Amino acid sequence: MKNNEMLTLSSHKSKAVFLINNGISLKLLTIKVNSKLNYLSKDYISSNSKISHPLFSQHGIGDYFLPSIVIEALDSSMVSDFVFDHYEETKGYSTSSPLPATKNKGKGYSFFYLDKRLQALLIINVSAFKDCDGFSVSSSIKNVGNNIFKIRKFSSAQIDLDGSSPTVYSFDGSWAHERILHQTILNGGRMEIDSDTGSSSCFHNPLVIVKNDSTFYGLNLLYSGNHKTSIEVGDQNHIRIKTGINDFLFAYEVKSQETFYAPEAVIEVSDNLDDLSLNYQGLIRKHILPENKKIPPLLFNSWEGVYFNFNHDKIIGMARKAKDLGAELFVLDDGWFANRNDDSSSLGDWFDNPTKTGGIASLADEIRSLGLQFGIWMEPEMISENSLLYKKHPEYAMTIPSRTPIRQRNQLMLDLTNDEVLKFVFDSVCKVLDKTKASYLKWDYNRNFTDVFSSQYPASEYGYRYIVNLYKVMKALTEKYPQVLFEGCASGGARYDLGILSYFPQIWCSDNTDPLARLYIQSGTHFGYPNETMCCHVSSFMNDISHHSSRLEDRFNIALAGNLGYELDPTKLSRTDIQSIKKQIEFYKSQRSFLLKANSYLLGDYCNSAFGGFELVSSDKNKALAIIAITGSYQGSFFLKGLNPRYHYTLNHGSESFSGLDLMKKGIPNVPPLKISGSYTCKLKTMRVLIEKTKR
Ligand code: GLA
User: Fold this and answer.
1) Which of 38-42, 114-118, 290-294 has the lowest mean pLDDT?
2) Is 507 in the pocket of ligand 1 (CB under 6 A)?
């Protein structure tokens, strides 16, 4: 091997450069957008050679930043000494990991490190996507010796940077307020953005963006369980960013010849936030979402309209009206099975309640005979104590012997690490799909882990094993039912992550359908996820969560920025609302082929001003839809984004045309003053502008 060998991985607009010093140590020299690479001279390399920028870090070698890898040996020591061994070039790297993986990776490198004492082989695979921007990192540790060891910590990816006060963009919240953007300048110390709820959580999304020295680094994981991203600012102008599974109460035993796989990380680098978000949109569409993804039908969901209070005639009445308004799919949400009339019972009893539905199979047929598709709700990972399933199989529940379990929403979780339970889950979903011939399934998950215990595995392995089995059942079901559209849901958007999106192409964004709250929730989500993955429903005039009233037009405009649906009782609409909804749906259908694969931009600066919103631009830039939103008094201009500066565009079919450059630099002309008015208590006003390239 040569001295100072440089390896380069080029993605669309960015590059990662690795340096191998004398064949013995390897570092990530830089990862940057192409335009910022020109200072990468020999001087740069040598002047920085004192600072190591390894791809991972370990404890006990004098590096006092928190390490990315900790392994406990049989003798209970927790020090590792992985030494760089060699590398191999890869093309379209594929993995045997039980976790989801991005598809069609381009050129990459596998870096091999060996710890002789532990007899552990660490492999870090870094690949660049060639048809879109971004890098993938998937790492594994194999036990190549005879002694068991325990992985106590294993981050998926690490980036070391020179710098001192990075800005961290995190997407945090709570139930009904998911993924709200927070910006934190970290002048010193450590910051952790993590979840130990068992899922990716509504509290802290695994998407994290770090800005250092005018470059933005985006990190996300193809993982739906406990995760942690940490950012540490230390001495010598050094920043370390790590992302991976959460090491809190984590320890995983690796036996001889076994391999442990860390979740795949996807990394984006950009010199601006708009491009970073576009990069993620492209990468997720091309390499993460299921391949058989179709245009989603316009759905009406029963939940916010009737909750648990319905019978056969009510549902048919709602479906008939929904069809009249333009719906293509009717979704029967919670409450259709066993004795489920509130949230205190029946989870696990996935059989019909004919007194309520009149027979689920015939109800589904009747809905189809109206010219609608039929969709259904399930919460397959859960069990109610008040259920036949619990009577028969109390051991299926995730509980700790002799401890009264913690209930959330009156329910317990199923122990998915148990293969018998996993089979029960798979069979239950198959039975429901077979019986109803549903073409859509909303897969809900309405609580977090508390009583982690398995008689088979240590509690410290539970979270990882649960998620591996969850993916097993998701994969088996989506393969068995390729025609079914699966939608992920977790008390709204508490499991909005790239693991779920690897199998289910869309996720219920939040239980909060108030348009003002949604502006913030969808804006935060926008940073790392494409708009068609975000399910957004128009609900009724008075919102059941915010208790604010809002204009139908505003509810529609905000929902239009995502994957549109309706969730209200269509039999209770006024004549005016019926006419308006018909027009809305007509408009949506005429535009959706471009909307659902558009490049999505955030407009305005919703964190610092009263102007926010979204702009969806077709990839050829011939068409765009802007949704302008004001949340208070705003006097400034409404600048557009992403247009071709040289093209001319009309606005809302007007006769005048304007250059793309002017629309982006001067803003939309002649906008009548946009004011929040009327007696609505939701303080939001929106405006929709359809921007079309002129023919000349
Ligand atoms: C969760 C979901 C809702 C609805 C209810 C049903 O809260 O987020 O959309 O399906 O469960 O119980």
Assistant:
1) 38-42
2) no
